[in-house]
Each structure stands twice: as structure tokens, then as C-alpha cells.
Design a protein that fits this description.
Elements (H helix, E strand, L loop, with lengths): L20 H7 L5 H7 L7 E3 L5 E3 L17 E7 L9 H14 L4 E5 L4 H5 L7 E2 L2 E4 L1 H5 L5 H21 L6 E6 L3 E3 L9 E3 L10 E3 L1 E3 L4 H8 L3 H10 L1 E5 L4 E3 H4 L2 H8 L6 E5 L4 E4 L14 H10 L2 E5 L4 H15 L6 E6 L1 H7 L15 H16 L6 E5 L6 H14 L3 E4 L12 H12 L14 H11 L5 E4 L1 H12 L7 E4 L19 E10 L4 E6 L18 E2 L5 E2 L3
Parallel strand pairs: 3-16, 3-17, 4-15, 4-16, 8-11, 17-18, 18-19, 20-22, 21-23
Antiparallel strand pairs: 1-2, 2-14, 5-6, 6-14, 7-12, 9-10, 12-13, 14-15, 22-23, 24-25
Helix pairs in contact: 3-16, 6-7, 6-10, 8-10, 13-14
Amino acid sequence: MSDTAPAGSASATAPATALSDLEIAQRATIRPIEEVAAAAGINAEALEFYGRYKAKIDPAKLRVPASGAGRAPGKVVLVSAMSPTPAGEGKSTTTVGLADSLARAGHRVMIALREPSLGPILGMKGGAAGGGYSQVLPMDEINLHFTGDFHAITSANNALMALVDNHIFQGNELNIDPRRMTFKRVLDMNDRSLREVVIGLGGPAQGVPRQDSFDITAASEIMAVFCLATDLDDLRERLGRITFGYSYDRQPVTVADLGVQGALTMLLKDALKPNLVQTIAGTPALVHGGPFANIAHGCNSLIATRTAQQLADIVVTEAGFGADLGAEKYMDIKARVADVAPSAVVLVATVRALKMHGGVAKDRLKEPNAEVLAAGVANLQRHIRNVGKFGITPVVAINKFATDTREELDWLLDWCAAEGVPAAVADVWGRGGGGDGGDELAAKVAAALDAPHTFRHLYPLELSVEDKIRTIVQEIYGADGVDFSVPALKRLADIEKNGWSGLPVCMAKTQYSFSDDATRLGAPKGFTVHVRDLIPKTGAGFIVALTGAVMTMPGLPKEPAAMRMDVDPDGNPVGLF
């Protein structure tokens, strides 16, 4: 890869301005993707072009030294965060800026990010391409449809359910009980109206009536399978293992029983290849896969991470929301599948999030208030200690906002020093990682990569599912214990009976609190986590525990971001962040 920004890329080092993220992206210099690929050591035969600035990589055609044949796989830096405000704390921005800064320091770096979902893009939170002068490009295309991966996953998911309902209509040879479906149709959109629906109405020719529901595509088990598959053969096998429901005699029914895993694999074969793009500063980035971390496992595809490890010495990746969600799942789910355990962890903290967890109202987070930081820092402290339970001391990245005061930033730096945790202020939104905005953070992360550590999982797979959940809620969330609903207790018995108790657990929980109550901020104590249901994801290879009121089909806010979006006379997006 190139260790410098592309010629003419003045925007990589420009000072912060009133420009929007979209305007910054549109003014950036962007190189043809074949130049980015060549600098990253990707041979032309492995590239499949999607226009001038995007390409897919076929890992089977890559010609790079394999691990053990001249080079070790790249070390992984996992970027996570403290519990976020509703707008997010800039985890993707920090990931991009840190990678750019490491490249600026002379390291061979590649980024591995998740793909954005249209639900939050048109809703409230925004996309996942970074921000300011630390973005992946072309930002608008990445946020809107990109290379069609989400559409392929949506199509495969819904093809499965169309085939299941057709099987029932055509005589139901597998004896499928329509009342005991565990797999849902999906849509890449926030749409609360689809949480509960009835299908098959209108008479015998229209199918068999049954109650159904939709999830958002990011919550689909096919998304999880897609992101954990090691190659095309593994994808087919995992798809075949998906349990979509139960028979009338309460036996699990799988995709392999239906015999359609080959067709689903065919729909996903092109999407499975990682997508190559670039940052404003020219650092290569793989953007691939997109499960949410509050309702799924929150990590980009394993194939993209491993491809990046083949090509770079350092891979900077991220896991969604706070470290209680995405990071824990990265350690206990993704890092069990392959050798992608992190060598360093970065925790993104912001002054505004500390204020929120200290009790400041969300509409007053921009006001200077150094006094309240001491109350809110308990949230960050718990995340730091949680990461330590995996054998790694994290680096705290203080993502700087324009409203932060020097007094507030210095207070947080002093607190981290007293805790014995390395920390740095990162102004990668305003000055870019290709500029000097992330130099200090990059130096501390580079030092952390060389520091000795012994990675470990939080729990052994031999524990029962109940004990795995109890371990997570007590060790990571700080809860007193866990309460299982009657349906969840029945699921536990089914899981044991069907031989699934050796699977890891994927907690579906609010991202705003360590508890399952979004209003309990800070570092709450004296609470119980309530598990209302358990869903075996036998293809992905984990058990989803639904807690509290978390929804697998989000809704839109009162004033969706879509209200501000349009295109100009030339067809260019307007109002996209």
C-alpha cells in the first residue's frame, strides 16, 4: 500500500470547517481502485470492478504469501467504545483515522469495516463510512446500496421463506408446523409495521395462512452465516444447518432437510467476495458484511478480516456499539471461528458520552461541564475492566468534538493516566488521520501491539447456555443475575435436547446501558437481566438471547433523516450526513 496520501489530496490534512461529511467526501481526491489495489499488493486477476472506485476481491485468486510461507498474518486492532449516545461516538471515524495515522507512520495497514444498513441511514443514527476527514470513499455509494451485498442477503433470506411456505402449500412432506417457525422474512429498512403480519390470506390458492413477522436484514441469520463463513463450501454447509422451524412432532427442520442450501449459496456467491474501497488519505479498506451488534454479532465478515491479514501487517477493524456488545461478541464468537483474536483493543470515549452517563440531558451535552465527568466515567471504567478480562489492556481514544473544552479533555487524560491506561485525544474528524489528527493515538496503539498479552475467551463452550448467559451478564454487564421467562426456559430445554448447548451466546440487548433497560445509564448495579426468549442460530453457530425490549425490527424516529435527503440536478446526493 502507499504510505502517503494521494497527490492532490489536500482534504486529508485540511482544517475542520463547516462542511458536511458528504461535502468533504465529494471534494476529496479519489484514485482509481486498481491503483489502490496495486499499492496494497492485490494482483489484477483477483479484482472484479464495480465502477471506477469499487471492486470485489476474489480471495481464491489472490497471489500473496500465505501464513507460514514467509510472513505472519497481520495483527488485528479491534476498535470498540464506551456505551454510546443515540448519535454514536465516532467509532468508525476513529477506526478510519487510526488506520490512516498508522499508515502515515510507515506501517502497512488495511481497514476492515461493516457495510451500512439503509435502516439507520434513513432513520437517525447515520451510516458507517466514518466522518469528517476520516472517511471511506465513495461515501455516498457505500451508504446507498454499495455493491448489492445487502440485497443479495435479503433475497437469499426471503427465497428461503418463500420455499418453506411453498413446501407447506404443496403438501408439507416435512411435516412443518406453521405455528413453530423461528425464521423470519427480512427487509433492509426500519419498519415497525412489519413486526407482526399475517400471510397467506385470500383463499386456498394464496397459500396457507399463518402469523409471520419481519426482521431487519442486519438481524438475519443469513447475514450472520455470511459474516462467519470461511469460504464458499463453509457458507453452503452453514446455510444447510440453519434451523427455520419445527415439525408437528417438535423436531427441528433445517435448510438441508428442505434441500435448498445450494440455491441460497448461488444467490450469495458474488456477495461473499470482500469489497475494496479507500479512505480520503488513500488507505485501502475492505467493507463487507453488516450485522448489528445489539441484535446480532456486530462484526464485519471473517473473509474480509482474513483477507486483510494476508495483505497487511496491521488490520484495523471495529465491532458495533459498546464493548459490552460488539467487542464481547468478537472475542467469544468471531475469534473462536478463526485466528483473528485482537492484539490490541481501542476504546472510543467522548466527553459528551461521559456527560450523558453522568446525568446531563441529551439536549445539553454540548455545554461545558467538567464537574459531571467524574460521575459518567464509571461507564468507561467498566468497559476498560471488561476488556482486561480478555487478557488485553485497551488504549482509550478520546474522540474530540468541536464543543469539547481543553479542561474536559485534560481531565479525562489525567483520569486514564491514574487508571494506568494509555490514552490519547484523536482529532481525526477535524484534521484527519492522513493529517496529524491521530498521530499520538497511532503511536500508543503501535506500542500496544508490541506489548505482551495472553488472549482468552470469557467462558468455555462446555458451560451450559444458562451459565454462559449468567457469566456474560455478571462479568460484563455487572448484573446480580439473570431471569428467564417461561418460554426461554422451555427453549433452554429444547437446546439441551437437540445438542446445541455447546454453542456460544449472542446477547440481543440495548446498546445504551449495561442493563437491559436503556434508561439505566452509567455503570448500574443491583439489577437483573431478563431473557424473554432464546433463538438457536444453528447455521451461524450461536444462540441469540433476546433481553428486555430490544427489537429485531427497529422503527423510524419522528423526524427521519430521510426528510433532509434529495439529489441535485446532476443526480448527486444532498443531505446525506
